[in-house]
Amino acid sequence: MSLYEKHLFICENEREPKNPLGCCASKGSKEITAALKKRCNEAGLKGKVRINKAGCLGQCEKGAIMVVYPEGTWYQNVTLADVDEIFEENIQNNRVVERLQLKK
């Protein structure tokens, strides 16, 4: 098994529509996952970058949520419109997209 340079987990958790926390799936996380996979495949990063859907990451009220390893960068309120910036800045250039970063 190969080790990845980057490993992204995107929350695709689904909750009932009336749940006050909301859910990342209703905030477009499935489309975000698909778009990031497409960008990585087009860039020839298969085997170097892994994109995975995740269950609840415990921050759904701030979703869509994703986390990037090995650095452990968390992103909040990610939308489909943010995919290109995350791909170019974080995946390709190892720079955090500060405006989306979830801070403690």
**What's the rounded overall pLDDT mean?**
93
The rough form would be described as globular
User: Share of helix among residues?
Assistant: 10-25%
* Oligomeric state as shown: single chain
In the predicted model, the low-confidence regions spanning at least 5 consecutive residues are none
Strand line-up in the sheet with most strands: 2-1-3-4
Describe this structure in words.
- The protein has 104 residues and is of the alpha+beta class.
- 23% of the residues lie in helices and 18% in strands.
- It is built from two helices and four strands, in the order E-H-E-E-E-H.
- A four-stranded mixed β-sheet has the order 2-1-3-4, with helices on one face.
- The radius of gyration is 13 Å and the shape is globular.
- The relative contact order is 0.23.
- The model has no long low-confidence stretch (mean pLDDT 93).
